[in-house]
Amino acid sequence: MQASFWKAGHPPTLFAAFLYFDVSFMVWVLLGPLGVQIAQTLEISPAEKGLMVATPVLAGAFLRVVLGLMVDRLGPKLTGIIGQVVVMAALGLAWLVGLSAFWQVMLLGVFLGVAGASFAVALPLASRWYPPEHQGTALGIAGAGNSGTVFAALFAPSLAAWYGWNSVFGLALIPLGIAFVLFIVMAKDSPDAPPPKSFKEYMAVLREVDAWWFMFFYSVTFGGFVGLASSLTIYFNDVYGMGPVEAGYFTAACVFMGSAMRPVGGYLADRIGGIKSLSIMYAMAAFFLIIVSFGLTQAWMALIVFACAMQALGMGNGAVFQLVPQRFRREIGVMTGLVGMSGGIGGFYLASSLGLSKQWFGNYQAGFLIFAILALLALVGLTGVKRRWRTTWGAAHMTAAKV
Q1: Which CA distances in Å does 82 have to 87, 89, 97, 109, 184?
Q2: pLDDT per residue as tens digits for the range 40-65
Q3: What angle do CA 351, 226, 120 make, to 5 degrees?
Q4: Of 19, 75, 115, 123, whose CB count within 10 A is highest?
Q5: Spelled out in words, what is the top-level CATH class assigned to the domain 12-188+198-391?
């Protein structure tokens, strides 16, 4: 990494943004890795399990817009502090009081959505400190915080087995508290903050057809990633009879592959063009989801196929955000919020549809197949718009980047 990068911005803020994003994503998907133990205690149905792990994802989707508006008015640091306090208070109350009913778990899931909305805080916090030539690197470092989903899958089931799943909510306060203190000490708002955007400005961009395309594209890539991250522990337990700890390890491996591939997807998009790389990712994701939908006889086979699907989806996330700033350069803040919201909606759909598929048909095939069809529809849509994109805003005389 060039030395000029570290001199160009504010490294302590960049690290604080990454750490805040990382621990927030860890607790955002916490109900997924704990889903097996929670379901056993509360005796909930497959559909309720799907809804339980999908609720934080949906709440986080809509709250990204709310926190985005707060960032414009209060600044990212204060907004981040408020968000962290809300999440820690909800986890602390759940730990002290205990959750004994399904509706209580769902209510906690809504508050965990605030952690998922950290996307709308961490990225502007880091981005505003860095000039255009270093934006990709800065956002790549801050955005690497989605790796927090790996820690949830890796440690939550084991901690639940040792101390009980309700105690995990209290234990999660330890990394959250450390990150909170470091965030207060290290994070600093950039003096070059853009003027606040109104809710009307958020809505104005929706008149652009391309905005809807990007929202749909990201609902498939990020939606697939976070939907699987929330659901795979339950899937491996239900289909292959794994214990929650072993199922969590398998999930963590898949999620790690998807998280690690996001910056690779952005790099590949820079080299061969976002449209071409994203087209490849959709085809790969659909292919592997179709394979897993028919069921695999061994858990290790499913692990390999899911890991491949997650890699494709993770790389697709990076490719989408290689294209968005080129098309919506002036509206990038608004588009980040709207596209991020759409990704959460896609994750809610996948996680909840897998639970419904299991309840209605006795297996997960329909849930996977429908999402694979959505990936193919995204591929068809991308094929349909690529010529127009490459001859208008993506033309060689309009941008130096490959589209």
Answers
A1: 9, 11, 22, 18, 11
A2: 999 999 889 889 988 998 999 889 88
A3: 125
A4: 115
A5: mainly alpha
